[in-house]
Amino acid sequence: MNKNNKSFCAVLLCGGLGTRINSITKTIPKPMIKVFNKPLIFYSIEALLRSKVSKIILPLGYKGQIIENYVRKKYKKNLNRFVLIKTGKNTSISQRIIKVKSEIKKYKSFLLLNSDTIFNFKLNKLIEKHIKSKKKITVSASIMKTSWGTFEYNKKNEIVKFSKNNYLQNYKLINSNINGIRNSGIAAIETECLDNLNNKEKDFELNLYSKFINKKQVGLYIFNNIFWEPVETLSDLNMVKNNLKLKNFFKKNYGKFTN
């Protein structure tokens, strides 16, 4: 176990309605959907417990009591590492952050991440990159799978190959000369960035990141050779459950389990 870094906490977002997968989330919150016989939130929590963060703050929302009960039972020996705060059912991310801001403010910096993504990132690498960069925010990006298939073409627009399940590191943006890279949803942020946070902002990330990008205060860390699988739809869920590479990785790290 790494020694905790008292300057860092984590905010693990877990309060959304999960409307894109509501055939399941009618009865349980999305972070409690099981993959390999463990709830999605398990994988994020385990990554955080193995990192240098001192506290894991959960802004509870939709069916939050189910998540709270799980955390209190599963992690009863580590409850001192958790802060569980009810932030309301129909609450935006900005509003949730504001409701837990007093806890975040006890630390110099915090990690922001989602609880519906399975990944094997070493979060300490992001923390170390952020500290060395002296930036206000360090966002992270990951490779992405093209599950619908990829047509490769030459300069004459002639198709030379078709393949599926490829991975992209970056992509060309329409009407721009700049390449893009996919947001992993995990960022290291200086707590002072929340000083002027407005609870009426509709998109927390868009507003916060844009503000500090304009100030040239956002760094980038790219996770390479990783698993990063967000579960947003039933299709995503089925694809993750059938990913043998992913299953074998977590079986090795977290013991025997099944779908």
Pick out its properties.
259 residues, alpha/beta, seven-stranded mixed sheet, 9 helices, 30% helix, 30% strand
Topology:
Blueprint: E1 5-13, H1 22-25, E2 34-35, E3 38-39, H2 40-49, E4 53-60, H3 64-74, E5 82-86, H4 93-99, H5 101-104, E6 109-114, E7 117-119, H6 123-133, E8 137-142, E9 144-146, E10 150-153, E11 159-163, E12 166-168, E13 171-172, E14 179-180, E15 182-190, H7 204-214, E16 218-223, E17 228-230, H8 234-241, H9 244-254
Parallel strand pairs: 1-4, 1-6, 4-5, 8-16
Antiparallel strand pairs: 2-3, 6-15, 7-17, 8-15, 9-12, 10-11, 13-14
What does this structure look like?
It is built from nine helices and 17 strands. It has a seven-stranded mixed beta sheet. Strands 2-3 form a two-stranded antiparallel ribbon. Strands 7-17 form a two-stranded antiparallel ribbon. The protein has one domain: Spore Coat Polysaccharide Biosynthesis Protein SpsA, Chain A (Alpha-Beta Complex), CATH 3.90.550.10. The protein is of the alpha/beta class and 259 residues long.
